[in-house]
Amino acid sequence: MPKDLVSIKDISKEETEALIDTALSFKDVLRRDIKKVPALRGKTVVNLFFEPSTRTKTSFELAEKRLSLDVINFAVSSSSVVKGESLLDTVRTIESYGIDYLVIRHPSSGVPHFIAKQTRASVVNAGDGINEHPTQALLDAVTMKEKKGGVKGLEVAIVGDILHSRVARSNVDCLTKLGASVRLVGPPTLIPLNPPAGVKVYYDMNDGIRGADVVMMLRIQLERQGKSFFPSTKEFFKYWGLSAERLVLAEKDALVMHPGPMNRGIEISSDVADCPQSVILEQVTNGIAVRMAVIYMLQG
Amino acid sequence: MDKRTHIRNGRIIDPSQGIDGYGDLIVEDGLIAELCIKGAEAPRKKQSAAAANTGGEMIIDARGMLVIPGLVDMHTHLREPGFEYKETIRTGTMAGIRGGFTSLCPMPNTNPVNDNPTVAAFVIKKAMAEGYCSVFPIGAITKGQQGQELAEMGLMQEIGCVAYSDDGRPVMNGLVMRRALEYTKAFTFPLIAHCEDLSLSDDGVMNEGSLSTHLGLKGVPAAAEEVMISRDIMLAKLTGGKLHIAHVSTRGSVDLIRRAKREGIPITAETCPHYFSITESAVSGFDTNAKVNPPLRTDDDVAAVKEGLRDGTIDVIATDHAPHHVDEKILEFDRAPSGISGLETALALSLTLVAEGVLTINQLLEKMALNPSRIMGIERGTLKPAAVADVVIIDVEKEFIVNPDNFASKGKNTPFRGWTLKGVPSVVISKGRIYDNAEWKG
Q: Domain span at residue B42?
């Protein structure tokens, strides 16, 4: 296992499968009454979030505490960054505290990669720009494995704003590596003109989800409205929203996934979000197990 | 409409089926029922297209006439809602019938702008109730034609819009145009681009050249059109979105489109009769009826437009029928609105291309019926059995003098007043309904 997890591309299929299996065993730990293991007692992690985050940050923090790490949250708004300190100086300062892990989220693509080269600590990417969100891809794979018995051979439709989605980018690589076929579905304005090799692109959602084993909806960021990506949320939902009527086109037992937070009525209807096929809340639970596995495995 | 109409002995031309021969066409229940080609030789005696009613079957003798698919105008301004004093759906479709057009595609620059399903539904309902021919609305690309936010092109398509254009107002923001073109890829409709760089055309009112210097009028350079066509060709190449270029008027534009097509970029283009019939010299004397956007150009541009029509660079002849009230045209040249009332002269002006040998009659019909139907994905422009019965019987030899006072259109603004033209759509059948233009007063 490498020192860092900045990109899903950096880990092999075997390493990915090992992370998934480790996550599943940590999930057993999370079902116990006492949910903490002493695995990383005495080690220190800094959560360095340059972008607002509630879910991912909470998930990482819980995972770290379950591993008995000492956790420092570096709040960017109150730090020297706002005083004009360079990113590199901030990282070197933090490193001088003698830390072992750095969990980083940043609005610019490539920041975790840059920092990983500058520090001896293990760096975990918690989302960089529109580039990657590797732990999200891993938790999605864990959820699919748990519900479908494996990822290999699954038809996975990822629907919505692919262009700006770090979740989609990490998922494409992770799922392809594990032997699933990936379809990208959405308005042409929100799908890259040059999609990754090996994926199929669908502008028609009915075709895109027909026969799919997994329908993964992405969040439509409302700030994209008025920027000519799509005319209105009404039109978006009509053509690319997941409604109950549309979901029947997928396999009968298809999983409905969403990385959250959802816009009910825009990319997914309420009845679908809450239907038995929806595993959206399981994704959240698996997120903690996956983040425990990643930090645990990176130590060696 | 429930009875049969038998059109006999005409020369039937339908490029959609590769048909050009003499024979009969039978219309029944508003549809083409039967097409019977007897041979390539004309029956001897020539008569008028007189209609006779015999025993429940209407017989139309079309000896000496052309029997063709109803013409399709993919660029019309019907002005309703909002500018009913210029034109209405009723008078505009009446002008269409007079001109041999059975399908009109009104541009969205009405008031309110046709940029949402409600206005689109209004236009369609009104056309069903009051229109004499079929109306396929073109919606706006952007909300309010402001060039900023995409209009609900998908939802408007559900209502019946067949293409999108901010006609009259180019989408100046290249990123918005890029996204609009990308967005079309999820659907079947094209974008129709009014190509004009507003920063270059500025407040120009005629073609920029020695004549504009001579007249002391502010000119619009050919480059204002060509720069924008270049941009849109590049965006079509980048995105693969469907692009149709409206009213091509310059040699440079024709060259750009020809080159783009050779490269395989998915674009189509149209021109209008006034861009191959007259030049900027029509503006001499400050005739506001010759003020049009893009402006009338030079002899060389006219030659290039004809060459573009001949070699297939230009796919479509559209009218850009732009009726205005007479009070608006009797104004200072700078203040008068641009536009020509074109529906009732387009066919005869275009037939001169056949007389000149620029196009065959078959090619002309491709450009005035088949190609616009294909570009917009409407099932018109054909005489195939079971198609909607849109048929025009043309007396190609009949001459007439253009007199806008007799136009069915409210727009009397034409630079062709007093011209003697040849070719009259004597009988027009729209959705099975027969209009005898010699008798019909609307």
A: 4-68+387-402+419-436
- B148: chain A residues, CB-CB within 8 Å: 226, 228
**CB contacts < 8 Å between A and B, how many?**
53
**B interface residues, A as partner, C-beta within 8 Å:** 142-143, 148-155, 175-176, 179-180, 182-186, 238-239, 241
B192 in any annotated domain = yes
Tokens at residue A89, please? 């100086």
**Which residue of A203, A204, A232 is in closest CB contact with B152?**
A232
pLDDT in the model for residue B1: 47
Cα–Cα distance measured from residue B189 to residue B191, given in angstroms and rounded to the nearest whole number: 7
Asked if residue B408 belongs to a domain, the reply is no
What is the count of structural domains for chain B? 2
Q: Report if residue B155 sits inside a domain.
A: yes
The boundaries of every CATH 3.40.50.1370 domain in chain A are: 8-132+286-298, 134-283
Which residues, in sequence order, are bridge partners of residue B270? B316
Residues B8 and B144 both lie in one domain = no
Handedness of CA B362, B368, B373, B376 (dihedral sign): positive
Residue B150: which of A193, A231, A238 has the nearest Cβ? A231
CATH at B46: 2.30.40.10
User: Catalytic pick from B115, B320, B390, B395?
Assistant: B320
- Domain check: are B130 and B232 in the same one? yes
Among B142, B151, B179, the residue with its CB nearest the CB of A189 is B179
Query: Residue ranges of chain B with pLDDT lower than 70?
Result: 1-2, 43-55, 442
B320 is catalytic: yes
Instruction: Read off the pTM.
Output: 0.94
Q: What is the ipTM of this complex?
A: 0.92
Q: Among positive and negative, which fits the CA dihedral B81, B85, B88, B90?
A: positive
Written as one string, the DSSP assignment of B320-378 is -B----HHHHSS-TTTSPP-B--TTTHHHHHHHHHHTTSS-HHHHHIIIIIHHHHHHT-
CA–CA gap between residue A93 and residue B248 (Å, rounded): 64
**CATH level 3 topology of A134-283:** Rossmann fold (3.40.50)
Crossing angle of helices A55-66 and A13-31, rounded to 10°: 80
The residue of chain A with its CA nearest to that of B147 is A228
**CATH T-level assignment (fold) for domain A8-132+286-298:** Rossmann fold (3.40.50)
pLDDT per residue over A67-107, tens digit each?
999 999 987 766 667 778 888 888 898 999 999 999 999 99
Residue of B nearest to A227 (CA): B149
